[in-house]
Amino acid sequence: MIWSQSGKTREIDLQVRTLAHPGRSELRLDAVLSALSDPVRRQIVSQLADVPGEQACSAFQLPVSKSTSTHHFRVLREAGVIEQHYRGTAILNSLRAADLEAQFPGLLRAVLQAAIKEASATATAARPQAGQLNAEV
After folding, report:
1. pTM of the model
2. How many folded domains does the chain comprise?
């Protein structure tokens, strides 16, 4: 792209930053299962499944550092679980639900249901039971 300012002509390189994703036919079950084996990555996938469209990485409240969250997003992208692309300086994420369903029917639904059960069990275990709070005092 060439533009002029104050009579000076400048050339600007408008390279589009792209991120590599496996194609639908390149999705491997072992890579997908490995990516979904981590609780932080399941949290990301669950959040993407709950909200239609795209979400920026900054929309996720993850219990890890920014560099670690970047790693988790990369693992999910390279396994083909999510799609990422740049919009300005932000990276937007979307769940590749249709591709996963086409390659591994029912897998994503089963993982999401298991994640809900796991989160519910964890929340229940963290709450004090009736009478337990008084017994500890």
Report:
1. 0.79
2. 1
